[in-house]
Amino acid sequence: MAGNSRRRGAVRKTNKKGATKGSGGQRRRGLRGKGPTPKAEDRVYHAAHKRKLEKQRRDSGRHVRERTTELVVGRNPVVECLRTNVPATALYVAEGTNNDDRLAEAVRLANSRGVSIIEVSRLELDRMTGSSMHQGIGLQVPSYDYAHVEDIIDEAAASGQGLVVCLDNITDPRNLGAVIRSVAAFGGQGVIIPERRSASVTAVAWRTSAGTAARLPVAKATNLVRTLKQFQQAGFQVVGLDADGDKTLDDYDGTEPTVIVVGSEGKGLSRLVSETCDSKISIPTSDWVESLNASVAAGVVLSEFARQRRAS
User: Structurally, how many domains does the chain consist of?
Assistant: First the structure.
């Protein structure tokens, strides 16, 4: 019968049904075990796993918002940023944008600085900027690399005549940029801003600082009061600017290592910050002028302290 031949190489066929002898190693494999039980957060069907994914998503979102780049839009702002050497990584130009002197200058400045020039569709630029009011051009600016508070304290203390400005309740980035420019101009070592409820070094601040933000360190303080106390422990006098101060700028000695604390034009210094100051000084002005802009006030005091130090 075919298939049952005894000749070499023949295949024996059988119609026998039912289990064959042995398990084929299945029982042996079943006794090996499956290893340690995974953590609840690693089991995809467990609620803890969903919570873990949600936390990762939130953390990832915060990280992106902190380190994301920013687009400066509009022809005049873009040209101004490029003129003042604001750090930039790319210049985006919408396809079909009408050329003019400002666009030509932006492209020329970007080329001279080695900034990539990327042509995109107008719809894509609308999506990137969240608006159609970009005038066909956008400059990508990287996020600012903040210094550490301790580094500014050490550098200012090592200089012998330390001069630092701390900002309290300053939310306008133009004021921040102007203060950075003044501190750099009058020999200061840095600017410190609160981590929350404060202006940050955005493209607007970069532009207002006229590029000095690239050289003068700016640090974020988690707790401004604690930071001021650190300066005091390092031998600095902490001076708050206040229209009702107990001293005036005319008779204050600013030759010692000093921290100038500037509050907003409307709110002034917060209570705890004011109480931490060693003294508060006012700037003499005409009677009918209520107060000075925060950045202007800081510039006036910095200029006077720099004059005193040159004369001493």
Answer: 2
